[in-house]
Write a structure and sequence with these properties.
The structure is a homodimer of 229-residue chains.
Chain A: H1 15-29, E1 37-38, H2 40-47, H3 51-63, E2 67-70, E3 74-77, H4 82-106, H5 109-127, H6 133-151, H7 154-175, H8 182-197, H9 201-223
Antiparallel strand pairs in A: 1-3, 2-3
Chain A binds a DNA duplex (30 and 30 nucleotides) through helix 3.
Pfam families (chains A, B): FCD, GntR
InterPro entries (chains A, B): GntR_C, TF_FadR/GntR_C, Tscrpt_reg_HTH_GntR, WH-like_DNA-bd_sf, WH_DNA-bd_sf
Keywords (chains A, B): DNA-binding, Transcription, Transcription regulation
Chain lengths: 229, 229
Amino acid sequence: MTKATTAPIEPSATIADRIFDQLRQAIVEGSIPAGSKISEPVLAARYGISRGPLREALRRLESIKLVERRANVGARVIQLNSDQLLEIYDVREALEGMAARIAAERMPDEAIDEIKRLLAQHRGEIARDDWQTYFQEEGDLDFHFRIVQGGGNQRLFDILCNDLYHLARMYRCQFGMRSERARDALKEHELIVDAIAARDGELAEWLMRRHIRASREAIARRLVPQTGR
Amino acid sequence: MTKATTAPIEPSATIADRIFDQLRQAIVEGSIPAGSKISEPVLAARYGISRGPLREALRRLESIKLVERRANVGARVIQLNSDQLLEIYDVREALEGMAARIAAERMPDEAIDEIKRLLAQHRGEIARDDWQTYFQEEGDLDFHFRIVQGGGNQRLFDILCNDLYHLARMYRCQFGMRSERARDALKEHELIVDAIAARDGELAEWLMRRHIRASREAIARRLVPQTGR
DNA sequence: TCAATCCTGATTGTCGACAATGCTGCAGAT
DNA sequence: ATCTGCAGCATTGTCGACAATCAGGATTGA
């Protein structure tokens, strides 16, 4: 599994960068519980640094919406609720649909072949039935990551991979929601890649949007069984 | 003209907040030229503050992509190029299309009436032919702002109004590009509002995407007459 | 008993100084 | 003449201390 969504660790970057990465991972994976208050002095002491770099890291976490800050009050880890999760899926539907369209227009052939190999590998993993669904989920993110990357739209990439994907991972870690949609999702992935390989941007966008909408509905159904919104 | 895209000035917020607003405005309007290097000591001295709040403001400007920073080297104001501008319009097409769809589903009736009044006012301004195109452009942003706000998707709102709209304004100020598309744009705006009022989300999205795509093409035509990409 | 007020404690915002890193110009060698 | 290495300088990153602000609890009055 390629560590596609995880930035490679630059060893001698600045302290603030390192703390930022550590905190982001801790928040996403739940080591720092959602909704908990963040005290600058105690965190600085725990990581053995000063408050300066820590504050910079907190600012960056705020900019990607993982923590909320109020002046003179402090910072809290974001508290996820179902409405915001559904909002994210609406944004993903729009952006990744466009990403699929652009990928169909401009993605290099080699990158498409690589995604095909990736999907073949996923197919094998799912065939070995009860394999860790965790890796299936990671593979799902990896697939979406490559589609976005393939089109070469840097801003699209930033929004999705620096902000939204971390939120999606955070939800999975917190709610432990493993989708039993793995097989359907894989099938949909293959259709999308076929459309991209055929350079059919309109179809690729339509399929991607339907795919994400299906994920959204599966989540909405599980969150509040009585309502779809 | 409502100051929709300009946050109201909180008088006694933190220093960093105030400097952030001032710098953002200065960059967007060109007072600080694009591509120029930013020196922390000289800027701190000019605004009469310390480097601490200034660094926080720079970090926030970096998060909305108005400045670029490299460790141990410094910060520069972003240098706009035509490719990135076109990228932004792709993102806007996707996001605002979704925003129009959501607005058609959930925007309150009163807000729709308000937009209708706004458009009527714009129509009057355009009728008085050579009225400052500046205000027409501001009115255009105001229209889009209200559509996004009407749907109530907070994340969609953040991405568009905190990041992309500032970039769009920056381009206009820098290149002084006043669109002679004002009449066409107004007509398209009216169609979009009609679709929203009719609660036809699919049509609203389709019209909004076509509208933004038309703006994109108009810009692409002016930027590099020989290519549309 | 309840509400309003004040006080206290802690936390955050701000500042100036020090250390570390990258860039620039010059001298010297090939 | 061009390239390489070094030294100096400027800028950024980091740190500890001080001031400003807010949350919570105790106290007092009705």
